[in-house]
From TrEMBL:
<keyword id="KW-0456">Lyase</keyword>
<dbReference type="InterPro" id="IPR017926">
    <property type="entry name" value="GATASE"/>
</dbReference>
<protein>
    <recommendedName>
        <fullName>Imidazole glycerol phosphate synthase subunit HisH</fullName>
        <ecNumber>4.3.2.10</ecNumber>
        <ecNumber>3.5.1.2</ecNumber>
    </recommendedName>
</protein>
<feature type="domain" description="Glutamine amidotransferase">
    <location>
        <begin position="5"/>
        <end position="202"/>
    </location>
</feature>
<dbReference type="InterPro" id="IPR010139">
    <property type="entry name" value="Imidazole-glycPsynth_HisH"/>
</dbReference>
<dbReference type="InterPro" id="IPR029062">
    <property type="entry name" value="Class_I_gatase-like"/>
</dbReference>
<dbReference type="GO" id="GO:0005737">
    <property type="term" value="C:cytoplasm"/>
</dbReference>
<keyword id="KW-0028">Amino-acid biosynthesis</keyword>
<keyword id="KW-0368">Histidine biosynthesis</keyword>
<comment type="pathway">
    <text>Amino-acid biosynthesis; L-histidine biosynthesis; L-histidine from 5-phospho-alpha-D-ribose 1-diphosphate: step 5/9.</text>
</comment>
<dbReference type="GO" id="GO:0016829">
    <property type="term" value="F:lyase activity"/>
</dbReference>
<keyword id="KW-0378">Hydrolase</keyword>
<feature type="active site" description="Nucleophile">
    <location>
        <position position="83"/>
    </location>
</feature>
<comment type="function">
    <text>IGPS catalyzes the conversion of PRFAR and glutamine to IGP, AICAR and glutamate. The HisH subunit catalyzes the hydrolysis of glutamine to glutamate and ammonia as part of the synthesis of IGP and AICAR. The resulting ammonia molecule is channeled to the active site of HisF.</text>
</comment>
<dbReference type="GO" id="GO:0004359">
    <property type="term" value="F:glutaminase activity"/>
</dbReference>
<dbReference type="Pfam" id="PF00117">
    <property type="entry name" value="GATase"/>
</dbReference>
<feature type="active site">
    <location>
        <position position="187"/>
    </location>
</feature>
Length: 207
């Protein structure tokens, strides 16, 4: 099984690759080659930084978004987005202006609103992950504690796409899912046993 870990200059690739291997992945291809993505059995899109910069990096690779769309949306390959890689699933992001996303899960990425002066932004560190009202990820996400680092959050249009929530001065979406696509706002590669267990389940996931 080949897993394509997309290199678009916006992720801590080697940490994610090491975590995937620790979780049981045998063939992790760190790649910026659309043909590798088009042939992969599973795809992981990491992301660190602003929505705008990450989108520019991804769309800046000729043919990459088309290859991802063909393999995931048409071919049905399981897909995992991490942090900004999850946020890019949205219709648009509102960080540094309006930037179009992949639009695979309708919604927008907007700034975390400070509802309590004691709440710090960015949302950084360990926090609980609780399941959403539905189970769009078919058991992939489990309750636990994960490591977060973000100032913007994904607000889906449809609550049925919410796979998990966390609380930081109010509810924030911790994971989204739709069909063969799942995204997590937290960093599995920094979330120790909880994160490795999630990655191991993703490697076996048959949506």
């Amino acid at each position: 099984m080949t897993l394509a870990l997309i290199d678009y200059g916006a992720g801590n690739l080697h940490s994610v690759a090491n975590a995937l291997r620790a979780a049981g992945a045998e063939d992790v291809a760190i790649t910026a080659d659309p043909s590798v993505v088009r042939a992969a059995d599973r795809i992981v899109l990491p992301g660190v930084g602003s929505f705008k910069a990450c989108a520019a990096g991804l769309w800046g690779i000729s043919g990459m978004v088309e290859a991802m769309t063909e393999r995931v949306q048409v071919g049905g390959a399981p897909f995992l987005g991490i942090c900004v890689g999850m946020q890019l699933l949205a219709t648009r992001g509102l960080e540094h202006g309006v930037t179009e996303g992949l639009g695979w899960i309708d919604g927008q990425v907007q700034k975390i609103e400070r509802t309590d002066p004691r709440i710090k932004i960015p949302h950084m560190g360990w926090n609980d992950v609780g399941l959403g009202r539905h189970d769009p990820a078919s058991g992939l996400i489990e309750p636990g504690e994960a490591y977060f680092l973000h100032s913007y959050h994904f607000a889906p249009d449809d609550g049925a796409s919410v796979a998990a929530m966390t609380d930081h001065g109010g509810g924030l979406v911790a994971a989204v899912a739709k069909d063969n696509v799942v995204g997590v706002q937290f960093h599995p590669e920094k979330s120790q046993g909880y994160g490795l267990s999630l990655l191991a389940r993703f490697l076996e996931w048959k949506p």
